[in-house]
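Page 42, continued from yesterday. The earlier attempt failed because a stray header line got pasted into the input along with the sequence. Redoing it now with the clean sequence only.
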Amino acid sequence: MPAHQLAPDITDDPTRILAAEREHLAVSRAALRAMREHARSLSSDAAGDWVSQQILQALLDQRVEALADHSGTPLFFGRLDRQEGDDLPGTVYVGRRHVHDDSSRPLVIDWRAPVSRAFYQASPSDPMRVALRRRFGYRGGDLTAYEDERLDQGGAALAQSRILTEEIERPRSGPMRDIVATIQPDQDEIVRSDLGRTVCVQGAPGTGKTAVGLHRAAYLLFTHRERLARSGVMIVGPNRAFLSYISSVLPALGEVKVDQTTAAGILGDHSAPEDPAVSTIKGDARIVPVLRRALWMHVVKPTEGVLFTKGINRYRVADHEVREIVAALRGTTRYGPGRATLAQRLAHLVLVRMEQRGESPDDRVQDAVARSKPVRQLVDQVWPKLTPQQVLHRLFGDPDFLAAAAKDDLTAEERALLLWAKPPKSFRSAKWSAADGALMDELADMIERTVPLGHLVVDEAQDLSAMQLRALGRRCRTGSATVLGDLAQGTTPWSARSWTEVLTHLGFEDGAVTELTLGFRVPREVLDYAARLLPSVAPDLAAPRSLRPGAGSLSVRPAPDLAASLARAAEEALAREGSIGVIVPDASVGAVSEALAHLEHRVLSPDTVEDHRLLVIPASLAKGLEYDHVIVAEPADIVDAEPRGLARLYVVLTRAVTSLTVLHSKPLPAQLG
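This time it went through. Structure tokens are written below.
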């Protein structure tokens, strides 16, 4: 008998209830397989032409991929029994995707559907017409337990769910998992925010802000499928290692067509070394008017007119007329369209001369005149075709040009820092830095309009410069964004001090800022220890709180022989269940890897996340990652390695889900004393 039709005589028998729920799971899995096989059987031959066939086949392939049954994850994780007299279905199973049988009867309802909202939001004080909420416990893909919460009897708040706690604390290895079964009410409110609303989430460590952003992307794709299929959704993370870590979340939720990239992936993977002081100037929004002037200073005052010859006829546009057109266009349009408009305006004046002589030219004649050699030569002379690289090459290589473009927006000292000591011979041979990438993108948008997306999710946004934020904002200027981060974890010289500042640079001054301070991942003992750094790195932020006491989760040990202590700590962690991250100062990665040579391990690189149980992690790459057991070596060296070293240490100390071991041969930073 299917679980949604439980007979009265078994409803109080836990064993038989569990058996019935397992039967429903088996039926649902079989139905999902049938749905996938049906999708496989569909043919693109129904399309009328080859191009349409290719498009339809791609859509069918995506549908098949989205219907994959991930055997290690539960197909449903909750159930709602509605109150009597409700016009909605009496029993609803909530899961990662919709599943129906061959009669189109729903067996599992997608967690994003409106009816599923009660699973996350209902409470005894507001049951949302739900009589009973059932949570399911799983091991792998097998249903192992259930837990009921009565919501129709009012009274006191519900006790902490054991299944929910166990799911949150379950040891992890490999990429990040979705949190769809454990989303909390305040997280659910963010996830289900309207598409037109830009949301900024200030999230303390372990509050699930990254997962909330990913689940909001999945929710918006479900709710606004057709619109976002056209305009697109993009996830922007801090580095490729982070993207690898989160790469499995959206596919597990049935969303396989979402671009995931980094700021460098958008702005160009430029990596020339650069003084942080120079990068800071280039990242400041004050450079925007400097770039604008530098671009438009290439438009020069015309000194000649246009002479167009057709057969024996000559048609002249006087130099003063050309100057009037250029003056009217200059700065009122983007640079590239301005060039095209100038050619068309000149061609129009030639056509006026033709009409004055009794001719009847049409649009084809105007286009031909606009493309003619005399017009092209004048346009190239007055309004030259440019690339962002050409503009920057001149700006950073010519002191007089930089001074004229900068005016009062940059000081003499700042201009001196921006100038190349030895300018490259051409823009093609120039080596560009990461900060230059954002300047090029700004110039590219001044030349030709950037194509926008429907929705952008930006993680670790506090570490982006104003110019990088402007670049991302251009990509969702007609859409919306989900902005995620933690001001306390800002580790770049230009890290934001307020979310108002971030939203302004993105172009969403009216965006809503919400704060997540209640942690579920990091044990309280660990979080309280790391929070000792907050008065030094983010004094205006409230201290984070954790729901998990975590007694015994923190160990701080002096380690005169650091290599030997690291090896012992790693061996102790390997004897326990779960993933292990050994986080060390970047300069010590090689030495630590050598100290652990007798243990099978991998070193995390900037480009990939190694799927290995024991990882050595440079401190600069730890942001956004989580491990069951974290071993931190030499906090003092992590702090001394960079200007915002205390913020980096705060990041490092909050990566643990089960235990944190701190080893030090040097005195700890005073804030941790």
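Notes: Residues 192 and 332 are 40 Å apart (CA to CA).
Reminder to self: strip header lines before submitting.
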